[in-house]
Design brief:
Order of helices and strands: EEEHEEEEEEE
Number of domains: 1
CATH class: Mainly Beta
Helix content: under 10%
Radius of gyration: 13 Å
CATH topology: Metal Binding Protein, Guanine Nucleotide Exchange Factor, Chain A
Largest sheet: 5 strands, antiparallel
Distance between the termini: 32 Å
């Protein structure tokens, strides 16, 4: 299935392909403040529909995740990184995906605060 998503103001729009399964609810200092619920897909399954110039990147801690956010509204719709096997991944914030009933998704709690 292909899902449509965007930041709050619409300057960043994207398509994400796959089946939304369990989402990760991370308690690290960044994710807990942002309130993200993350769905991980292969990087090539996320297609940006708006110019990359609208996106800013934030890195912290080990600098291995590119947290992407809108320069205008500050909304974080996704981030980029690699999985333990070295595959390029996108972490899609399902709160930014249209038509998803968050109450039906299984949440996996990840202790990013201790990682």
């Amino acid at each position: 299935m292909i899902y449509q998503g965007s930041c709050h103001c619409g300057d960043i729009a994207f398509e994400a392909e796959g089946d939304i399964g369990p989402v990760v609810d991370c308690n690290c200092s960044y994710c807990s403040r942002k309130g993200t619920l993350l769905w991980f897909i292969a990087r090539d399954k996320l297609t940006l529909k708006t110019p990359e110039s609208a996106i800013a990147t934030y890195r912290f801690n080990k600098h291995v995740i590119d947290h992407q956010f809108c320069k205008r509204c500050g909304c974080q719709a996704f981030g980029f990184g690699v999985d333990p096997q070295g595959n390029k991944m996108a972490a899609v914030n399902v709160r930014c995906v249209e038509g998803v009933d968050l109450s039906t998704l299984k949440h996996i709690h990840y202790d990013g605060r201790s990682a």
